[in-house]
Write a structure and sequence with these properties.
The structure is a homodimer of 400-residue chains. With 400 residues, chain A is α/β, with parallel strands linked by helices. Chain A contains 20 helices and ten strands. In chain A, the strands form two sheets. Chain A has a six-stranded mixed sheet, sandwiched between helices. In chain A, strands 7-10-9-8 form a four-stranded mixed sheet, covered by helices on one side. In chain A, strand 5, helix 13 and strand 6 form a beta-alpha-beta unit. In chain A, helix 15 packs parallel to helix 17. The longest helix of chain A has 18 residues. Chains A and B meet through helix 8, helix 9 and helix 11 of A and helix 8, helix 9 and helix 11 of B.
């Protein structure tokens, strides 16, 4: 895995500055990068859900950037830590996952990670390899490195503590384990998401405890969901990196206009001056949709290649821009929880329940923006959706 | 180890009421005791110092009382937990002990414990046997049973937290382990010192977690040191159970008058009505010293037998009551930190430094109250002490 290490100051500056939130310790990190030594760069992701989303891809893309400079990417699937549960990005107590949940979630992790980093040149670990061998005594020794006050000073814990919400003692043990990972793989640098500063700093404490050199740290900016809120799969504002090209394209097109520039920066490798040129179109009164098309095409290209990106754009353009403007769609009002099939039958859009079922089973009902097929004919209305029913009909379901 | 179990209600009442601070759950405990079943009664002591003192002996004596009713005493030396450090009786962070410290401390534990409980009928365990086998994962699972809030609600933690004093995360793990001990030995009942309510309750939580029946709990009253303050070897107000008879006798004689009744109750098995008779002597204007002589003789008898108790009383009477009243002793003022030998030479009590050294080496210098020998001729003055120098001289060292 020996590669020539690139020490071009401009490239290092870009690596350290683009999209980063915090660097600890900057001076030391720069020195390491300029030394020409091949560094071990750690990134861990817990498989708490089946699909890696574009927010979690931000640190993965930074890992790739280190790889591109010739350093060793050390990726850790947190199969052990996922069971414990990291409370970092949660405002409430995080449940423990079963071993089965975790195994199910991480089935395609390697493949997904391989879309971003070059697996041939990377190390790929599961942290159960070493964490399952640790003893209770070691847990206690590691615990000695932290005070209760330090733990409670973390914003997410202190908020919950002040509100009187329960914090499980188990949650306090998470940083100890993530920290131990750094010892196990001898990390020189650790990359973390925007909410990981405490956990990655724990790595420094634990490395020191074991008499090892302390890793430096980069944490990255937060990427909001398409609607501007925190990413959450339950809010449907998440783009997963293995979404189908048309779905991915449509989802990017639904990104709030205020977030276009941030999505360019955090989700693509387009150089900053070029991003500025794109954004100038909007500033000069152009249609934001036009710029989002560039963004969507680039994001689809990254994960599916140029051809798929082209086709996804065509699909989107056909459906929305040329043939059927959303304004032409029929609006059907549905009570929350009512079956969508029944509502469409009542509105005369489908002739019968059995026609509806036939259409769904044959893949003839899709979400119009993303071309994602509806597979359950018993689907009930929970939020406003925009459907394509059969070959020509477009229906806006409005929940009342 | 099968013995007939005694279910005499009077005896059970005495067992449950004499010297107890808290019982959880009383009804359940009474039912267990009345059932005639031989119960497993747990008591654990961490070897944090070499000698068991008369305060720690209080729960040990209660364990003996259970044994006398035919139940199984299960004594646990906390050799594992001693290294972690229980913060229960501390107002500040408790340091971790090394394995060597712990091994040194517990050298004579079995012998000391054997002065109180009948070892032939008891189980004697070291908790490293099972705790050293636990994994990190199990630590996390146990941690899930407790909230940070529960931990911080403990008085000693909350006091420190409010004062901004550091609490190590390691200290939060202590109750998990003490609780696991109850699982390991299948405790029906656990006895704890006055400061152990939280830890012994943890046993109930952990037993429940492992699907075992919950133990009931007895905690005992606190025994203050001889001067009325909390017992602390650094304050010299502690009586260890393997102190020499004269030393033990003298120390009991130094107990504050207000504590005589409590020492009778917590340190002897004298029935309460009889104690009341002794105390009546004081109430009717008698000399408390007279009553303390009864107390001292009984305590020495418990740990050293009747003959030794007789002799200790004689020694005390000879030194203090008959031959030399403390009033006759010469007073030598010494600066704090000054060598006692030098001060006695200056005062003309010993002829020379070498005479002093000879006297000390020959065992000719003792603490007058206790007959304890001074073994270090370089001893410096740190507090007022009363010494016997040679065969006849009594000296009060007064630190100025």
């Amino acid at each position: 895995m020996k590669t020539a290490v690139i020490t071009d100051p401009e490239k290092i500056k870009d690596l350290l500055e683009r999209d980063t939130e915090d660097i600890v310790v900057r001076e030391s990190l720069e020195k390491k990068l300029m030394s020409g030594k091949q560094l071990r760069v750690k990134l861990g992701i817990d498989p708490t859900s089946e699909n890696i989303h574009i927010g979690r891809a931000v640190p993965l893309r930074k890992l790739r950037a280190f790889q591109d400079l010739g350093h060793t990417a050390v990726f850790i699937v947190g199969d052990f830590t996922a069971q414990i549960g990291d409370a970092s990005d949660k405002l409430s107590k995080r449940p423990m996952l079963s071993k089965e949940d975790v195994e199910k979630n991480m089935k395609t992790y390697k493949e997904q990670v391989g879309k971003i980093i070059d697996l041939d040149k990377a190390e790929f670990h599961h942290n159960s390899t070493w964490l399952s061998k640790l003893t209770f005594s070691e847990a206690v020794l590691l615990a000695e490195s932290f005070s209760v006050q330090q733990m409670l000073a973390r914003r997410n814990f202190s908020d919950r503590y002040e509100k009187g919400e329960e914090i499980s003692l188990r949650e306090f043990m998470y940083p100890l384990m993530q920290g131990y990972d750094s010892v196990a793989i001898d990390a020189d640098i650790e990359i973390g998401g925007f909410d990981q500063l405490f956990n990655v700093k724990a790595g420094r404490v634990i490395q020191k405890f074991y008499g090892k050199p302390e890793q430096d740290i980069i944490t990255l900016q937060m990427l909001e969901g398409t609607d501007g809120r925190k990413m959450s799969s339950s809010w449907g504002n998440v783009i997963t990196i293995n979404a189908a090209p048309e779905d991915m394209f449509g989802k990017v097109m639904s990104v709030n206009d205020e977030l276009i520039e941030k999505y360019f920066r955090l989700c693509t490798a387009i150089p900053l001056p070029e991003i500025a040129q794109h954004m100038a179109i909007i500033k000069e009164g152009g249609n934001p949709k036009e710029v989002k098309m560039i963004l969507a095409k680039e994001i689809v290209r990254i994960y599916h290649g140029a051809d798929a990106a082209e086709k996804a754009q065509e699909y989107f353009t056909n459906v929305f821009t040329n043939k059927q403007a959303p304004e032409e769609a029929e609006v059907v009002e549905v009570s929350k929880g009512q079956g969508i099939g029944a509502a469409l039958k009542n509105a005369g859009i489908v002739a019968s329940s059995s026609e509806w079922t036939r259409l769904v089973d044959g893949g003839g009902v899709t979400y119009a923006e993303t071309a994602e097929k509806i597979t359950d004919s018993k689907l009930v209305a929970t939020e406003d959706v925009y459907l394509k029913v059969g070959k020509r009909k477009f229906v806006k379901i409005k929940v009342i």
